[in-house]
Amino acid sequence: MRHILIATLALAATPALSDIETRNAEGSVVEVMDRLETAVEEAGATIFARIDHGAGASDAGLDLPESELLIFGNPKLGTPVMQEDIEAGLFLPLKMLVYSDGDGQTRVAYEEIGDTFDDLDMGDDLEALGRMEDAMRNFADAASGSG
C-alpha cells in the first residue's frame, strides 16, 4: 500500500509535458532562422535575442548539432495576457527553436500557446492567446519555407 501511495504522489508531482509543435524546414539552420527573423520583424514584433546554442556548445568544447533560438515579443499581445495573470511574464517573450536533427533535417519547433499558459489563471477565450497561436503558426510556416 505504501508503494502505491508513493507512486501516486510522484505522478502528481510530475509536471505535464507540453505539446511541442515541430515541422521540417527547407534550408540550413541559419537560412531558416533568417526567414523566421524576417517574418517576426515584418509582423511588427520585437526581437530580443538570437541565441546560437551550437556555437555556445562549441565554445565550451562540447558537440551539439546546429541550433538557434529566437526570443521575441509584441507588447500588444503580451500585455493583455500579463494583465490576466502577471505570472505569464515567466513565459514571455515567446521563443522558437530552429535546429538540425540527427538525420541532418532542419526543423522548427515551438511550444503550443495553450500549453504555455495552461497553468495560469486566465480565461481560455482571451483573444490575445488565439492571436499568439496564429502568429506562432504563421512564423513557423514562413521559417520552414511553406508559408
Automatic annotation (TrEMBL):
SUPFAM superfamilies: TT1751-like. It comes from the Bacteria. Residues 51-110 form the DUF302 domain. Gene3D superfamilies: TT1751-like domain (3.30.310.70). PANTHER family: INNER MEMBRANE OR EXPORTED, SLR5037 PROTEIN. This is Uncharacterized protein (DUF302 family). It comes from Palleronia aestuarii.
